[in-house]
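During the reporting period the student researcher (J.K.) took over the structure-prediction task from the postdoctoral fellow and processed the backlog of single-chain submissions. One of the processed entries is reproduced below for the supervisory committee.
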Amino acid sequence: MTINDALRAIAGFFIMLSVLLSIYHSQNWLYFTAFVGLNLFQSAFTKWCPMITLLRALGLPEHRGNVRNLK
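J.K. obtained the following structure tokens:
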């Protein structure tokens, strides 16, 4: 699993979890959903994401090993 794969999986998990918590526990969990969305939005412009920094520190690879150039 690469950093980008893990980032998408973590963001999707956090969004789904916070939506479910907002339905069954408290609507205040939607603030967490907004936080995740805003973080993804700002990273599109700044090219920096705190989760990617953490995933790099954990040693996840940037790219897959034997990726062929498909043209």
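The committee noted the following: Residues 3-57 form one domain.
J.K. will present the remaining backlog at the next meeting.
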